Amino acid sequence: MKLNMVKKFQNKTAIVILAAGNSSRLGRPKQLLEYKESTLLRNTISEALKVENSFLILVTGSNNNLIEKELNSVEITVAFNSDWQSGMSSSIIKGIQKVLDLNSNCESCILSVCDQPFLTNAIFENLMKESETTKKGIAASAYSKALGTPVLFHKKYFEELLQLKGQEGAKKLINKYADDVVAVPFEKGNIDIDTEEDYEKLIS
């Protein structure tokens, strides 16, 4: 492994992109939908790679061969979740485990999905900045009068993230520890791609 990559893993924040689902409502891998002369997934990855003092983990599952074939950046560490069908929790667990494997001293982790087309590096950076400024352990994106992804968790929550079951996701901890949450505005964060109709609206 190149020295600069080893150094990168020493950064205090990990960004974990959850891309293991089979896009059942869409009927084809949403990760590979064309967007901005790229794909939804590669757009998310390129924005994450712009974030300083962080390192990137991509969790794959369904269609992993197709998806990994699309990616050639040495800056991406892929974690394959063979248990992806059991629900979102398994991908979060796989991502956190990989983070700790690479850097057991990691201070925080941002969980992100790959189908929010308006996600930018500034969104990730704002989560990091607000968490640092407010000293809150959770910084969650705010849109449509709700809190969701991307969401940053301080390492004190890693153990509970590793205990998630089935379809449980980040929302469980956001709700449980509401007093330790800072809401960070994410304009158009409510737009994600679940159906062909969603995708047609995006590209029309």
Could you please describe the fold and organization of this structure?
- With 204 residues, the chain is α/β, with parallel strands linked by helices.
- The chain has one domain: Spore Coat Polysaccharide Biosynthesis Protein SpsA, Chain A, CATH 3.90.550.
- The chain contains 8 helices and 9 strands.
- The strands form 2 sheets. A 7-stranded mixed beta sheet has the order 5-4-1-6-8-7-9, sandwiched between helices. A two-stranded antiparallel ribbon has the order 2-3.
- Strand 7 (138-143) and strand 8 (146-154) form a beta hairpin.
- The longest helix has 15 residues, at 88-102.
- The radius of gyration is 16 Å and the shape is globular.
- Its EC number is 2.7.7.76.
- Pfam families: NTP_transf_3.
- Residues 16-179 form the MobA-like NTP transferase domain.
- It comes from Flavobacterium nitrogenifigens.
Could you name the key traits of this structure?
single chain; 204 residues; alpha/beta; Spore Coat Polysaccharide Biosynthesis Protein SpsA, Chain A; seven-stranded mixed beta sheet; two-stranded antiparallel ribbon
Summarize the model shown.
This protein is α/β, with parallel strands linked by helices. The chain has one domain: Spore Coat Polysaccharide Biosynthesis Protein SpsA, Chain A (Alpha-Beta Complex), CATH 3.90.550.10. 35% of the residues lie in helices and 24% in strands.
